[in-house]
């Protein structure tokens, strides 16, 4: 398994390039601000061919470069329908004053080929099976992606090392994110690697034992069943 990552732009959003191995097809996860050149460096270094861009949610720091990356390689983008409108209008993810400061004068558009995600989907892409779990709270359309064959979860801004995603932006919901953590994260095995949208990699076991937010909740029936 090849998982290459780098922090993109001033938001230091983790962009991931995932492939079975070097020289194969790959999937790009969350190409953020100024990610395009760094994505291409990873593709060249490992001789990879992208077949899709998948997005954990619609905030601009995670989708900034999705249109140019998809357009240059003629690949589709996948996003949950509840966040799709932020691809073309990222200001919807921020209070008006903040949106003006961050995005004033900039325009964004959807890629030509956008495909919508649903809870429980399994995306078979680049020789990988990515399981989609809808995990609202940070945004209404937040999702996580799990590798069906490996104990790895790309958590977006749901779960971080020692923390969780913020819920004070438009569409945020603290009760919803706590439910998502209980349903999507806590049922997973301790050894599951958590590759978050920002910051360092962690594991479910480490977060179960040390994350103060997870200590507040108990597991709900979740996505571990049947895998």
Automatic annotation (TrEMBL):
Needed cofactors: Zn(2+)
InterPro entries on file: MBL_Glyoxalase_II, Metallo-B-lactamas, RibonucZ/Hydroxyglut_hydro
Pfam families: Lactamase_B
UniProt KW keywords: Hydrolase, Metal-binding, Zinc
Metallo-beta-lactamase domain segment(s): 12-198
Domain of life: Bacteria
Protein name listed in UniProt: MBL fold metallo-hydrolase
